[in-house]
Design a protein that fits this description.
The chain is an alpha+beta fold and 159 residues long. Helix content is 19%, strand content 41%. Strands 1, 2, 3, 4, 5, 6, 7, 8 and 9 form a nine-stranded antiparallel beta sheet that branches.
């Protein structure tokens, strides 16, 4: 599955918001989130990062991201969760791009996703959510297996 359009169900996640250049702040967010998640035995859950701003149009210092971990739908946020909040990724239609990143260049992966794949798919971003889903812990090896997701809508055909 290098690229595909698919329907995804809603997913409950616990997130920690960071602000600043994605290349540094996402790691900082996971440094907070991972020890918290370990308390609840969430190490084998889905690990994601939601991106709230387009780094091509937003000052890098103002870019917001939310490193996240999936939790059960009925998960209750404990008192020792400063800065962590629960939210739901919406169900819907998503473009997905599966890639292995070995050089740390996540920005190039996103550029390829949008310009090479999504641009020719008959779909466009719908403004709701985009995120990375990490399939391995690349912090150990420098090699990340990732699926990039962007919520999309079908482009209407003009006749």
């Amino acid at each position: 599955m290098p690229f595909m359009i698919l329907e995804k169900p809603a997913k409950t996640i616990a997130s920690y918001r960071v602000t600043g250049p994605y290349a540094t702040t996402v790691k900082q967010g996971f440094d907070v989130l991972m020890p918290w998640a370990k308390q609840f035995k969430l190490e084998d859950a889905d690990w994601l990062t939601l991106f709230l701003d387009n780094p091509n149009t937003t000052d890098p210092q103002a870019c917001r991201a939310e490193p996240s971990v999936s939790v059960s739908k009925d998960f209750q946020l404990p008192d020792n969760s400063a800065g962590i909040r629960l939210q739901t990724l919406p169900a819907g239609t998503y473009a997905a791009y599966h890639i292995t990143i070995g050089d740390g260049n996540f920005a190039k992966a996103w550029t390829d996703f949008f310009t090479l794949h999504l641009a020719n798919s008959g779909y466009r971003p719908d403004g709701r959510v985009c995120y990375e889903h990490y399939l391995n812990d690349g912090s150990l090896t420098g090699v990340f297996e990732v699926v990039l997701y962007q919520s999309v809508e079908k482009i209407a055909v003009i006749r």
